[in-house]
């Protein structure tokens, strides 16, 4: 038996023996399951950086006494403009893991944020130029905001002052509009990814416009709104987007990409929500204009009708009335003569009839001395059999009548 065998047996009794692969996998498992190391932000200075043809980026972060290897895969590197340079101070967000072939730990980067103002400005300008070439800031693709929005989405921090400002303005200006809040981080290393998530969620709803707002802060706090992911989500949104980032001096790339922007959340809300008092004034103005226009058109139509009627009357006179005047006069004269003749003939017949009636009239006989006798019942008495002694009768004469009493009766022949 070799001398190594007892030694191995002795080690096996005191401690577990691992292979290099087993140890490496064990350490890898420890690092990748640590809650802190799963999502971590590391601050340091870029020592060297290499852009591989595959699209991956390899670089190192250095501090006073330490150095950290980092890799950013192409899926994340595409969202970072070509700004990092050796000497730039940055914050790298990602997770810690182990690279087994070399047995080293490294930072798998998901995002890089510059800290120096020079690096920030250089990063912003480089990204701005690249996105401008793609047409993301072209004014011709800006969408018009709805005049009377019914549903408005607000992407912002649920605990910040921005959401309160938007709701306050909405209640004052256009309270009938429905507001949907999509909470998100608005600052920090994880903010760009969270803002993009909230924007994608808002894009799935039935909205009229989206407000992307945050309260005031330092220029460094606005860095997430210069992120390419946020800019692309704004342009990919199916509804108009209005930004109110809360910085009057410097516009973010999100402001350039938005369909409209304002320096503050309240100002952005005022762009979206119409003032109901102004709407009421406009309605009154439109009403007055409609009344005036209706009256004017009515007067024009009335005047036109008057002119047409006068023209029609002249036409009728010229075409029909004037040529018939002579015939009408002749017919009128003939009619008048005919009527006069008929009246004369009627008068003659009337006079003849009157003479005949006068000859037959009882008054004629009465005027010659004849008297008519009436009973008390106003019946004509023509025979002695109709009366008796003591009866009262009326004697009718030409100029009146007299009442008499029968004293005696003398029949004919006695």
From TrEMBL:
Keyword Cytoplasm recorded: yes
Subcellular location: Cytoplasm
Gene3D superfamilies: 2.40.50.1010
Chief localisation class: cytoplasm
GO cellular component: cytoplasm; exodeoxyribonuclease VII complex
Record's keyword annotation contains rRNA-binding: no
Domain named OB-fold nucleic acid binding: residues: 18-112
Highest taxon listed in the record's lineage: Bacteria
Residue stretches making up the Exonuclease VII large subunit C-terminal domain: 136-314
Keywords: Cytoplasm, Exonuclease, Hydrolase, Nuclease
Catalyses which reaction(s): Exonucleolytic cleavage in either 5'- to 3'- or 3'- to 5'-direction to yield nucleoside 5'-phosphates
Function: Bidirectionally degrades single-stranded DNA into large acid-insoluble oligonucleotides, which are then degraded further into small acid-soluble oligonucleotides.
Family listed: Belongs to the XseA family.
Protein name per UniProt: Exodeoxyribonuclease 7 large subunit
Organism: Acetomicrobium mobile (strain ATCC BAA-54 / DSM 13181 / JCM 12221 / NGA)
Lineage: Bacteria, Thermotogati, Synergistota, Synergistia, Synergistales
UniProt gene name: xseA
